[in-house]
Design brief:
Blueprint (H helix, E strand, L loop, with lengths): L3 E7 L3 H15 L10 E8 L4 E10 L18 E8 L8 H16 L5 E6 L3 H6 L3 E2 L4 E2 L9 E7 L6
Parallel strand pairs: 4-5
Antiparallel strand pairs: 1-2, 2-3, 3-4, 5-8, 6-8, 7-8
This protein binds coenzyme A.
Protein name: N-acetyltransferase domain-containing protein
GO molecular function: acyltransferase activity, transferring groups other than amino-acyl groups
Pfam family, one: Acetyltransf_10
Length: 163
């Protein structure tokens, strides 16, 4: 039986928001929505008999009208990855890395010189480090009751030289 993986950039529609929330709840027990002004890339596993959603990432482009970053880590001055989830059975198979690479390509076509930011779940820090992100400040314990987001680490992909 042939199985195909499809990676697809989609808009923030109501039906996509529903899909996104459902997978986030399945992966981490928390309902996360695609934030406003964000895009989303979904990963589907396509079998002849069934199409399943197995991964997702939401992200927003930096606001090129802003000249200065301001003091908030999640300032819109920066392009940002906001959420990402890979279904448990499909983790550690390179899908997360592919998703981030797709997003970085999108970011590059928008702006080549501003750092890219993420507020990473503590347990995903090693994943983002493998992709070149570096920690900014120390890990923070949050008041969030959901274990995956209890510890958060600000991270940044440093400025790349324009090519
Ligand atoms: C974290 C997550 C997105 C990673 O996606 P993934 O598809 O499992 O990761 P990949 O297989 O693409 O891994 C790429 C590399 O990172 C490493 N890696 C993956 N997860 C890691 C982790 N949690 N810690 C350290 N390294 C990790 C892999 O071993 C691999 O290394 P390699 O290139 O040397 O082989 C995924 O595991 C997930 O959805 N986790 C639960 C939800 C979550 O934490 N989301 C992040 C919210 S910010």
């Amino acid at each position: 039986m042939s199985t195909k993986i499809e990676i697809k950039r989609e808009e923030r529609t109501n039906s996509n928001r529903t899909k996104f929330r459902k997978l986030s709840r399945e992966v981490c027990g928390e309902v996360c929505d695609i934030p406003e002004n964000n895009y989303v890339i979904f990963v589907y596993e396509k079998r002849p008999s069934k199409v399943s959603l197995i991964g997702e990432i939401s992200y927003q482009f930096c606001d090129l009208n802003m000249d200065t970053p301001g003091s908030n880590f999640d300032s819109e001055y920066y392009s940002q990855i906001t959420f990402m989830f890979i279904k448990e059975d499909y983790q550690l198979q390179g899908i997360g890395k592919k998703l981030v690479e797709n997003v970085l390509n999108d970011f590059k076509s928008h702006d080549k010189i501003r750092p890219i930011r993420i507020q990473s779940a503590g347990r995903a820090v090693g994943f983002f480090e493998k992709l070149g992100f570096v920690k900014v400040g120390n890990i923070m314990e949050t008041v969030c009751g959901i274990s995956v987001f209890r510890f958060m680490q600000n991270m940044e992909l440093p400025i790349t030289v324009p090519t």
